[in-house]
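hiii so um. not sure if this is the right channel but i have a protein structure encoded as tokens and i wanna go backwards to a sequence. like what aa goes where. can anyone help
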């Protein structure tokens, strides 16, 4: 069966697997939310301070590459860990690989060429390699959370072969995004974001650091939009067919205008290498998350307090529903907002603020666009009767957040 793997190159293995908390079943989503609209960031409302793209000739992407390549860099994170903790070694799971869909699968490991640290044979220096890109001239930059999570030190190698130390400002576990800060210059070339989702079939150029090779660009098209492969309730990913491999995690995908349309984050593959099924976090998600990481080091999220699954034809028939649509409440937190509003396990949420819900992921998206404290009016099918529930979203309980370093 195909495996979904994080496109990060890891020298040795992080005990326990840092991404296990991100994996959710394909049929069940835990609903979390982030603030309704992106906060401001200097440069997002003005053109990038880059060279003008001279050509849109799809037979030659060189002008686009020359424009945006200086904004992309390689990332290397290091952490010293005890091999005896968690009972793992280099033959076990790779921390970069996330279980896809609704089934845990073996993770991949690259050959272990990282020497033991001076502390002794039970201490190992774990090296994780990925990609990133600047979003401001003063050194703020984006990468994937799984590239730098738990790192003791992080450094970047820019396109002009300069090495800088990087501080991890914040990591958002839900979106798998991290904000870095690189000091030492105020003239870093930086990328800007596209407005809205790209069209299916449009060209994209993916940049990254595959297998530690350094600045690499691949071309492909947008294969699909709003893909949810069970990794997160509110992560509707962009599917692309540009080759993405280990070490490309956190790198940007650009459109032919030189705008970032997404952040490359994972692939589905039976072997761990690219087969043309890759996923990127949409630019709109990045634009929402980054300012909060900058200002607070974390993303404030609301909470509905339910886990849900799609309404299948069999479920619709058993519940005597006229239409095969909506989100079935599969689990309910006793003290959550939904329970307080009178929603029960087995109810089907059919609308939010009078807008129909076709799939469970639609409800997740609607809630994602609402901030904690927002009052939502939910249409609910309860024991064959349609009713309305008014729900005020709470903030995600503290115990459900994973601590950051």
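sure thing!! here u go:
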């Amino acid at each position: 069966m195909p495996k979904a793997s994080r496109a990060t190159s890891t020298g040795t293995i992080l005990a326990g697997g840092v991404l296990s908390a991100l994996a959710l079943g394909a049929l069940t989503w835990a609903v979390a939310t982030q603030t309704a609209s992106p906060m401001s960031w200097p440069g997002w409302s003005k053109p990038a301070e880059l060279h003008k793209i001279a050509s849109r000739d799809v037979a030659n992407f060189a002008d686009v590459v020359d424009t945006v390549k200086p904004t992309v860099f390689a990332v290397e994170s290091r952490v010293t860990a005890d091999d005896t903790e968690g009972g793992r070694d280099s033959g076990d799971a790779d921390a970069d690989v996330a279980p896809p869909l609704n089934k845990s699968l073996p993770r991949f490991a690259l050959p272990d060429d990282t020497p033991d640290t001076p502390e002794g044979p039970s201490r190992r220096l774990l090296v994780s390699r990925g990609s990133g890109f600047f979003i401001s001239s003063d050194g703020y930059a984006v990468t994937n959370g799984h590239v730098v999570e738990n790192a003791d030190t992080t450094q970047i190698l820019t396109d002009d072969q300069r090495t800088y130390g990087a501080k991890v400002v914040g990591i958002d576990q839900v979106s798998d995004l991290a904000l870095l800060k690189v000091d030492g210059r105020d003239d870093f070339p930086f990328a800007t974001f596209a407005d809205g989702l790209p069209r299916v079939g449009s060209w994209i150029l993916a940049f990254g650091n595959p297998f530690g090779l350094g600045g690499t660009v691949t071309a492909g098209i947008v294969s699909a939009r709003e893909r949810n492969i069970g990794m997160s309730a509110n992560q509707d990913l962009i599917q692309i067919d540009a080759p993405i491999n280990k070490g490309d995690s956190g790198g940007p995908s650009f459109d032919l205008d030189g705008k970032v349309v997404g952040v490359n984050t994972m692939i589905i593959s039976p072997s761990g290498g690219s087969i043309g099924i890759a996923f990127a976090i949409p630019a709109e998600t990045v634009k929402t998350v980054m300012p909060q990481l900058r200002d607070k080091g974390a993303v404030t999220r609301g909470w509905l307090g339910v886990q849900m699954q799609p309404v299948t034809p069999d479920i619709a028939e058993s519940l005597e529903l006229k239409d095969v649509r909506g989100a079935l409440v599969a689990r309910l937190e006793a003290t959550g907002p939904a329970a307080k509003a009178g929603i029960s396990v087995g109810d089907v949420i059919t609308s939010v603020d009078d807008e129909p819900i076709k799939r469970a992921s639609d409800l997740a998206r609607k809630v994602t666009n609402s901030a904690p404290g927002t009052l939502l009016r939910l249409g609910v099918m309860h024991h064959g009767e349609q009713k309305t529930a008014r729900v005020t979203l709470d903030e995600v309980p503290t115990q459900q957040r994973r601590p950051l370093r």
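oh and The chain has six helices and 23 strands.
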